[in-house]
Write a structure and sequence with these properties.
Elements (H helix, E strand, L loop, with lengths): L7 H15 L10 E5 L11 H19 L3 E5 L1 E2 L3 H14 L5 H4 L1 H14 L3 H9 L9 E2 L3 H16 L3 E11 L4 E3 L4 E17 L2 E10 L10 E4 L13 E3 L6 E6 L11 E4 L5 H9 L27 H14 L3 E14 L8 E10 L1 H13 L4 E3 L3 H10 L4 E2 L1 E2 L9 E3 L5 E3 L3 H12 L6 E2 L3 E2 L1 H5 L2 H4 L8 H6 L2 E7 L3 H16 L4 E7 L2 E3 L15 H8 L1 H11 L6 E3 L1 H23 L16 H22 L3 H28 L4 H22 L4 H11 L25 H23 L8 E6 L3 H9 L1 H8 L1 E7 L6 E6 L2 E6 L6 H26 L2 H6 L2 H31 L1
Parallel strand pairs: 1-2, 3-4, 9-11, 15-23, 22-23, 24-25, 26-27
Antiparallel strand pairs: 5-6, 5-14, 7-8, 7-13, 9-12, 10-11, 14-16, 17-21, 18-19, 18-20, 26-29, 28-29
């Protein structure tokens, strides 16, 4: 017999071990291919709620398609996370009192990282197992493993020889602490309090006149090469082409005309520092202005600047420069502002510095063309569709992709330099030496480029490198292109676009047919989660407390396309209660011998209630299948939730209790068989969403009959013909349910005591309704707590009425309810709701509140108003019925 309650802690680990050891996660030999590559989590990572959502959705699809007979490959793996991993190990060295990486040396430092990876890295893959992720772990890959490293070398060398990888000196975001370039996409602009200083630049030919410029970074002025004004700004027309004196230096710089200067901002004049600002760099290129570097890679002042500023920290130099400007009378004031300051997205601590450095670049614009066309043609589709616009916007405006990083952990760039600087790009040092010898006609010493590749370079190859490319493996032939990529909108640029470019270039086909973009997870009020706010939800804590199934179902139910997923302990607890209710329903079936009817034919039931439940199940199965095919997880989960909770547990089990306790042996046998069969189909349908409780029920319910031939994970998905739906049975039972439900609602709204049994009269009913009442009278009376129910020609005095179908239902409440007291209570409650609605309207009608309040707060107010309005409408209807009865 099933235990009283389902205990996730007692079974989850053993069930997962049974799945994995049985080989259930591996693709079957036959069947159509269905493949997903996991967005590789960082080797340094641990499971957060975003990972839980992403991997739950992938697992639902994998289990769904596996049960539909497809050969499912869910390819797992991890990313080496260049910057993040190097930070972790460098911090560990410091904590242990060891020398830093430069003193340690590259070879030894990289050894330490590999040792850390083997001992501590990959925690997240173990945590994904706790979530129930059914990846084929036997195929787990790592972006630094031998096979993927070979793929990276081949791709880099081929792109270089095709002219699609090159070196160039351009501005990059520079991390002065880590001493490396950082991708534009890995910059987090953090709103920071600061100042906007106004500085006077005297005219070279008239020191009594000034051009005033505004800046948040006065230290960069030492590298100014021009002052720009808008060509249409009449204030400065006469100054264009003239020179101004750069304060604190002996240099004169020109006033130039450029559309970049905005006449509406500040003074309309802007300083141009091409070596230390991305916009200024472009202005400098347009006007052929040579950049002047005044901040070095350690973020100290350097170069051709007054000696007193050299080797000063950039922020110390700022203080000194401002002091001297004020002393010279060239500081025209300052204002407090809040502005976006670029920080390293990984550390959130270091302010990045635009730096002019020589780096390796990919010609992303040329690679983007086919990737744009593939989405335009529909070969790859985005869900929701609007994210294609996000993709297009970035791809049409794509910039060269800086792929080199000044790190030691990663794929070292396969470029070797001869003494004269000649570069040889090959897949191995021996090949580079051979190429150099062919070029110089003799052996020459070569030095390898010290830089490594951007982590996203190897990740861009993930869809095919993980399957064994560049070898022509069976997996590449069978599973590429993959079926769907499940990811979040914030890495459309980082990863999705780059996978598209690389897949089309090297595989001559898209890497995936569908891109499913899910939203972010926020707290219960809709606020972004952050450690500072203390509203972070830890999925592992939730699994410990409520079980993996409750968390998974919550995530699926909340994963509406394009909407944030609201998450909190209370929500997960409610879905844990759903699992408990379903477990108890299964236990009820087992106690009543409704189990394991393997030979049941769902076309055979004769009783209306059994024909009705078969039809309801059939409709639900069709809905769940269609919604999963369309990636509408919330709709699929919602349809199952409604069927299990409302239809199966609340109604069907209640409706069949008299049949199970009756003396009609034929009906008893039919009902047991029907209930058992429906329960089994529901277990199958729920499995992708709640794999642990369903697998446990599958096994345990099979203990009292023929043994299960296989685990649920590899069972077949319900594919039920529409012919199982009986419209007449559906109409009759839904009529019965509607009558009982509306009667219960009326009782609750009018405060009818729970123990009071009242008469119900069906007035003006058609013959079929009268027959239904007669057939199901005993059920209706019991479920609605009635003294009796019958038909009548008119509603007696003192009756509260409502319409049901073509008939009027009269509930005789005289002597049961104090009509005047109830009316007074309802009016009081309606007035309270009116006050609440007016208060909310006052807030929402305040434009300042709507503008300043966080988005989630405004949304919460709107939701509260809608709830109050709905409650008021119900009470007003009850009041109207009450007044009509007097």
């Amino acid at each position: 017999m099933l235990d009283t309650n389902f205990d996730p802690k007692a079974v989850e680990a053993s069930l997962y071990e049974a799945w994995e050891s049985s080989g259930a996660f591996k693709p079957r030999a036959s069947g159509a291919a269905f493949s997903i590559v996991i967005p590789p989590p960082n080797v340094t990572g641990s499971l957060h709620i975003g990972h839980a959502l992403n991997n739950t959705l992938q697992d639902i699809l994998a289990r769904f398609e596996r049960m539909r007979g497809k050969a499912v490959l869910w390819q797992p793996g991890m990313d080496h996370a260049g910057i993040a991993t190097q930070i972790v190990v460098e911090r560990q060295l410091a904590e242990q009192g060891n020398m830093d990486r430069r003193a340690l040396g590259r070879e030894e430092f990289v050894k330490r990282i590999w040792a850390w990876k083997e001992e501590s890295g990959g925690t997240i893959t173990r945590q994904l197992r706790r979530l129930g992720a059914s990846c084929d772990w036997s195929r787990e890959r790592f972006t630094m493993d031998e096979g993927l490293s070979r793929a990276v070398l081949k791709v880099f060398v081929q792109l270089y020889k095709e002219g699609l990888i090159y070196k160039d000196k351009r501005l990059v975001n520079w991390d002065p602490k880590l001493q490396t370039a950082v991708s534009d996409l890995e910059v987090e602009n953090i709103e920071t309090k600061g100042k906007l200083w106004r500085i006077k630049y005297p005219l070279a030919d008239d020191a009594s006149r000034f051009v005033v410029v505004a800046t948040t970074r006065p230290e960069t002025m030492l590298g100014d090469v021009a002052v720009a004004v808008h060509p249409g700004d009449e204030r400065y027309t006469a100054l264009i082409g003239k020179m101004v004196r750069l304060p604190l230096t002996d240099r004169a710089i020109p006033v130039i005309a450029d559309d970049y200067a905005d006449p509406e901002k500040g003074s309309g004049a802007v300083k141009i520092t091409p070596a230390h600002d991305f916009n200024d760099f472009e202005v400098g290129k347009r006007h052929k202005l040579a950049p002047i570097e005044v901040i070095d890679r350690e973020a100290q002042m350097s170069g051709d600047i007054p000696e007193r500023f050299r080797e000063m920290d950039r922020f110390e130099a700022r203080k000194q420069i401002l002091a001297e400007l004020e002393q010279d009378g060239l500081l025209d004031g300052a204002e407090d502002i809040v502005h976006a300051v670029p920080h390293d997205e990984k550390t959130k601590l270091v302010i990045l510095e635009p730096m002019l450095t020589e780096q390796w670049y990919v010609d992303a614009k040329k690679l983007a063309g086919p990737a744009i066309a593939a989405v335009e043609s529909g070969k790859t589709k985005f869900t929701p569709e609007n994210f294609a616009n996000t993709y297009f916007h970035w791809m049409h405006n794509i910039q060269p992709w800086c792929v080199s990083r000044q790190l030691w952990w990663g794929h070292q760039i396969p470029a070797w330099y001869a003494p004269d600087g000649k570069v040889f790009v090959e897949e191995s040092e021996d090949a580079a030496k051979a190429a150099a010898k062919a070029h110089f006609k003799k052996d020459v010493p070569l030095t390898r480029d010290e830089d490594v590749l951007d982590t996203w370079f190897s990740s861009a190859l993930w869809a095919f490198s993980t399957m064994g490319w560049p070898d022509e493996t069976p997996e590449v032939k069978r599973f590429y292109p993959t079926s769907v990529l499940v990811t979040m909108y914030d890495i459309i640029f980082f990863w999705v676009a780059r996978m598209m470019m690389m897949g089309l270039h090297f595989m001559k086909d898209v890497p995936f047919h569908n891109v499913l973009i899910h939203a972010r997870v926020v707290d219960e009020k809709g606020a972004k989660m952050s450690k500072t706010k203390g509203n972070v939800v830890d999925p592992l804590v939730l699994i410990d407390e409520y079980g993996a199934d409750a968390l998974r179902l919550t995530l699926a139910m909340k994963a509406a396309p394009g909407k944030d997923v609201r998450m909190g302990r209370g929500v997960v607890e409610s879905y844990r209660n759903f699992g408990t209710k379903f477990w108890n329903a299964a236990r009820f079936c087992q106690m009543n011998e409704c189990v394991n009817w393997n030979a049941f034919d769902p076309t055979t039931p004769k009783h209306t209630i059994n024909r009705w439940i078969v039809g309801e199940l059939t409709q639900t199965a069709a809905t769940v299948t269609a919604e999963l095919e369309a990636y509408r997880f919330n709709e699929a989960a919602g349809a199952l939730y409604k069927f299990v909770w409302n239809v199966f547990c609340d109604w069907y089990i209640e409706l069949i209790k008299p049949l199970l306790n009756g003396s009609d042996e034929a009906t008893l046998g039919e009902t047991r068989a029907t209930a058992a069969w429906v329960l089994e189909q529901v277990i199958r349908l729920l499995h992708p969403f709640m794999p642990f409780i369903t697998e446990e029920l599958w096994t345990r319910l099979g203990e009292f009959g023929p043994k299960r031939e296989r685990m649920l994970i590899v069972e077949t998905w319900p594919d039920l013909p529409e012919s199982l739906i009986d419209p007449k049975a559906a109409e009759e039972i839904n009529w019965l349910i509607g009558l009982v439900s509306e009667t219960r609602s009326a009782r609750a709204e009018l405060n009818v005591p729970a123990g009071a049994k009242i008469p119900l009269l069906l007035v003006g009913a058609a013959k079929e309704s009268c027959r239904r009442l007669e057939r199901h009278q005993e059920l209706i009376d019991r479920l609605a707590r009635l003294d009796y129910s019958t038909t009548a020609d008119a509603a007696p005095t003192g009756s509260v009425t409502f319409v049901h179908g073509e008939a009027t239902v009269a509930l005789q409440l005289e002597g049961v309810v104090d009509f005047s007291a109830e009316a007074e209570r309802l009016v009081k409650e309606i007035n309270r709701l009116d006050g609440e609605i007016a208060k909310i309207d006052g807030k929402l009608g305040n434009a300042e509140f709507v503008r300043k309040a966080p988005k989630e707060v405004v949304e919460e107010q709107r939701e509260r108003r809608a709830e109050a309005q709905a409650a008021k409408a119900k009470l007003e209807a009850a009041l109207q019925r009450l007044r009509a009865a007097v």
